[in-house]
Design a protein that fits this description.
Elements: H1 2-22, H2 24-43, H3 55-73, H4 78-94, H5 109-121
Helix pairs in contact: 1-4, 2-3, 4-5
Length: about 130
């Protein structure tokens, strides 16, 4: 039983990582946050108060702020993950995504990223192309 639980956790982490990579805003947010944190840890000394007006501090603040806004705006990629899982289940059950996914104009970016990822994995990406 423990092995099955561990495998499902690993699968959940793998799915989340794929969705983060598919959603470019979430990916950019995580990269920006990592760069900001690494820069603060590696290059900053205890005199942070003195450096508050320096250009590096301002740029780090801007990158860090954009990263947080990007992550919060995409709900940390959870909407992409939800759309990915839902589409994957529909493909497994019906052999194709639900008909509502064929019109990309009504979908948000995060939803579209998850749907495209699931369709691509099933080699059904051609079904998502909007038909005129």
């Amino acid at each position: 039983m423990k092995n099955k639980t561990e495998n499902s956790k690993i699968e959940e982490i793998r799915d989340y990582a794929k969705c983060v990579y598919a959603n470019k805003f979430t990916l950019t947010g995580y990269i920006g946050l990592a760069v900001t944190a690494a820069t603060c840890i590696i290059f900053k000394q205890p005199q942070i108060i003195e450096d508050i007006t320096s250009m590096s501090f301002v740029s780090e603040l801007m990158i860090g702020s954009y990263s947080l806004i990007s992550l919060v705006g995409t709900a940390f990629g959870l909407e992409t993950l939800d759309s990915y899982r839902t589409t994957k289940q529909q493909i497994e059950k019906y052999g194709k995504p639900s008909n509502r996914y064929y019109n990309k104009n009504i979908m948000y970016y995060c939803d579209t990223a998850g749907i495209k990822l699931a369709a691509k994995e099933a080699d059904l990406e051609h079904l998502l192309i909007k038909k005129n």
